[in-house]
Amino acid sequence: MKSEAVWTDRIPERDNARSVVYSICFKPDGSQALFAVGNRILVYGADNGTLIHSLKAHKDAVYALAYCRDGTRFASGSADKTVVIWTDKYQPLLRYTHNESIQCVAFSAGSKLLASATSVDFGLWSPDQKNVQKYKVAAKVMCMAWTHDGQYVALGQFNGHISIRDKSGAEKVRIERSAPIWSIAFSPPPKDGVVGAASGSASNGSGTPPDQLAVACWDETLSFYTLSGQPVGREQKLDFYPCALSWYEDGEYLAMGGSDRKLSLYSKEGTFLKTICERDDWVWSTAARPGHKQLVRVFVALSVVGDTSVTSSRVCACRAAACRRSAVMTDRSLCSPHVRARIKSHCSAARYRVTNTCCMLIITAFNTVHGLFSDRYAHRETMTDVVLQHLITDQKIRVRCKDLVKKIAVYRCVRVPYTMRYRCCDRLIMIINQSSVMVAADPYCHAV
User: Fold this and answer.
1) Smaller CB count within 10 Å for the chain: N or C?
2) What are the residues facing 379 on neighbouring strands?
3) Domain that holds residue 160
């Protein structure tokens, strides 16, 4: 896989201070990218990075952006406690307020229902009702995501809880974790069912169950849950604080970044695949361009004045990120005791400042990995699977390797029947740097 920056734009200073980019979103047709920069919304042409509009309707920093699925309107939420709903012509349509700063906004996929959340409540607005229905929450809402049918919304909270609510605001499921939930995302709608497993069982196009919730938690983990709150697969240890999460390529991959200062690609099971790009700054937000194999990346550099050890810098930057939304991570009501103690021990006297802000559009190209022998053709799919095809009968099977497949070799083993049945015989632990692989002994199909 190769990645290339299509365009880059460094955000200029205003009033001798650098503006922070907190949120991004795409117009549903993928033609434009919107960035929340300070108290403005910058609208770029996605193809070439041309600045189309610079919108100002808030008195304080814009923390959240979201576009309606039909492309007719979008919403912005700000620290000035207001939500502004805009037309697709970039004219303010209406606004409403909360009692605290707006942390996140999201339009439901099945309707024009808009959810907005603060540290004390979340609201639901629709064009059919005059008033915004508001519901209390136990802790600050850091992120939210709707199911693809628009029936439920998941709220990721600073106390480590994930609250799944219906359209009436009633809580149906609660998932409890031990650290702040910084980013969540439901898997995209399923495509037409296809044969996805070696056994021939049917699945959606990506093999990902519908409405599977990906959770990026500040206990440095990536985990997955069903709509009923049941965990899916194994929890993946990240070794960094995840700040941005986005499904990519119809649910086949996840793009994620954070304190590791990288934008990385993961499989739908959470297996690390490749680093898309690496910088000197934290990755704060990422979004997949609709209909394109492209990702938008926004990163902010945080430098710590005071204790500059590696551990302290990393944790202090986390504290700075939380403080941007008026959250104090050492507050007893917001996080678990061990998280409080960890941050307090490293950050009690630290200060921070923003040193650099930049936006990028990156295009990724997926290389073809395949092998051929006689009437058997094998190719890599979704980076971790091998699909083997009989060229005469057109029979296909899928071998799930659960790891990045780099090279494939297919050959005939004279000691086993010549059938379309395969199983893992052995795993060789080695570093593969060669440009090709050729196998001249058992087993029949060797993928590395």
Assistant:
1) N
2) 370, 387
3) 2-305+352-365
Q: 333: alpha, beta or left, given left = phi > 0 and alpha = psi -120 to 50?
A: alpha
Cβ 312 vs Cβ 304: under 8 Å = yes
Tally of CA atoms within 13 A in the half-sphere of 310 that contains its CB: 2
CA-wise closest residue to 60 among 108, 116, 101, 118:
101
Span 328-357, average pLDDT = 44
418 and 359 fall within a common domain: no
**Tens-digit pLDDT profile for residues 181-208:** 999 999 987 665 443 333 333 344 455 5
Q: What is the mean pLDDT of residues 381-400?
A: 87
Residues 84, 195 within the same domain? yes
Whether 302 has a pLDDT exceeding 60, the answer reads: no
268 pLDDT above the threshold of 80:
yes
Cα 259 off chain centre by: 14
d(CA 433, CA 436): 9
Between CA 22 and CA 6 the distance in angstroms is 21
Tokens 């037409």 appear where?
192
Mean pLDDT over 35-64 rounds to: 91
Q: Residue 154 is part of a domain; what is its CATH number?
A: 2.130.10.10
Q: For residue 346, what are its two tokens? A: 């490293």
On whether the CB atoms of residues 206 and 251 are closer than 8 A, the answer is yes
Name which of 261, 243, 260, 196 is nearest 400 in CA terms: 196
- pLDDT tens digits, one per residue of 15-40: 555 667 889 999 999 899 999 988 89
